Amino acid sequence: MDQFKIGPSIYEFKTLIEFIDRFNVSSKDTIFTEKFLYEKYMKDKVDCNFIFQDDYGLGEPSDIIINKILKDIHGQEINRIIGIGGGTILDITKLLCIQNATSTEEIFEDKIPLVRDKELILIPTTCGTGCEVTCVSVVDITKRKTKMGKRIEANYADSAVLIEELLDSIPPKVFLYSSVDTLIHALEIFVAPTGNPYNDVFCKEAIKIIIKRYKDLVENGLEKRFDYLEEFLRASTFAGIALSNTVCGAVHGLAMHFGSVHHVPHGESTARFLMGVFNKYAELSPEGKLIEVSQIINEALGIDADLKGSFLALEELINILIPRKPLREYGVKEEEIEKYVDKVIESQQRLLINNFIKLSKDDLISIYKNVY
After folding, report:
1. Parallel/antiparallel/unpaired status of strands 9-13 and 30-33
2. pLDDT score recorded for residue 1
């Protein structure tokens, strides 16, 4: 029997004030966010305790940043914590809820009981990670020189809150790299061998929304994204619900290590490997769920193409919005590709075992070379 779970209660509001009133946010609460979000949306609107990531370091979530925060809040009485931000903020907020944790190592190596002692509310300010509805945190583990994900069942939020206002000035690149990651979540999970019919419903809808609206943005301009924020937020959460029940595959496995080494934002990293991986799947096993994906793409784009043609159409659509940038332009050296793949195989088995089909080391090297 398939297992399927939606962890948090999901709420939608147009404005932050609606959320503050509904949830009775007060001085007893703690918000973890970034200073620019505080200045734009929260200052003079809410009276509570704030922790700013900026005070500890910016960029992707690293164990160094998290360790500093954990040590500072250790022993503080925090009953309810609210994470407001992108994937980095939300991933860190989950870890701040672990009882008696003082380091990332304790958490990721199961050195303490992984139980939560705080009420947890997660509010995204991008439309890509879907981690407001997952129990996974992805962290750059410095001693291992790669990103790793940790699933902690206790870390499903009590409430996931979608607030359209918080995306009302989302920059083009942030919007594109977060929304394409939503698309990739849905595509990878839809074809995953651990998928199930319940996941398929959410994946299909997320794929349709993103591709259809990408087509609209190509035709009418990127500024039209603000007309579709509600849909993109929902698509992100739909894909996140699927992600909470299984994991992604080789696209994310390859992107995790590449992004960590070259300090590339997560959505940008996954975008670089998407078609390389799916074209390899199509080369090796053009059947089953890949055919279904092709049909979903065709429907969203209003075309009638075979598997190769639909993948090409999707690639061309994404390339208009997120122009191709070969890996060599990030500093990847061709003679080191095998070392990258070896590290992926060593550190990303959690994801690689969920590939549509088994990919050998030679297959992964081929994918790297194709996007090099």
Report:
1. unpaired
2. 39
